[in-house]
Amino acid sequence: MAILPIRLFGDPVLRQQTKPVESVGDELCELIVDMVETMHNAEGIGLAAPQVGRQEQLFVVDVSPLLDEIPEDLRGDLPEQPMVLINPEIMWESEEEEEFEEGCLSIPDIREPVVRPESVRLTYQDETMKEHTLTVGGILARVIQHEYDHLEGVLFTDHISSFRRSILKRKLTGISQGKVEATYPVQPCN
């Protein structure tokens, strides 16, 4: 098991499309374990493969640390945590949307309100490549959408207004240059 450095805003790997996982072997199993450990070490609730410099369609989620802080109506039905989602595909999004403040381990110290569908239905494979269909709402739906975006090369800052992005430009540039203090290992793009 290893704690992996998290790629920061500006790293090209965060904007690249990911590739489907064909099978799970020893290397991918080790990556999954390392990603969960890295996410927990960084006190995150989700981590996608591009954030650790990989191009597999894979992310891990664990919202259990937030349960005491989340009102029950925003929790939704929670599967066992942590979750491993391989080759996920969002099949349906609710028309109802919700605004909630988001952050990202690749963009430390920036949090912004983001509007997303309240619920989603997705298919994915677990670490044994077993297929699942899941409909979730609340915080889990939000985290899944956030991590799914990473697999598409989209960051949460892409969902905020250009005005807000212009206000954050100096901070974002600093992050891309490694001028950031994080409590976890990071890898700037230069």
Give a verbal description of the structure.
With about 190 residues, the chain is of the alpha+beta class. About 25% of the residues lie in helices and about 30% in strands. The longest helix has 16 residues. It is globular.
Concise synopsis of the structure shown:
The chain has helices at 26-41, 72-75, 138-151, 162-176; strands at residues 6-7, 46-48, 58-61, 83-93, 97-104, 107-117, 119-125, 131-137, 186-187.
Distance between the termini: 26 Å
The biggest sheet amounts to: 5 strands, antiparallel
Tally of strands: 9
Helix content: 25-40%
Structural class: alpha+beta
Mean pLDDT score: 93
Low-confidence blocks of residues: none
Shape: globular
Q: How many DSSP H or I helices? A: 4
What order do the helices and strands follow? EHEEHEEEEEHHE
Proportion of beta-strand residues: 25-35%
- What is the CA-atom radius of gyration, in angstroms? 16 Å
The strands making up the biggest β-sheet line up spatially as 2-3-4-7-8
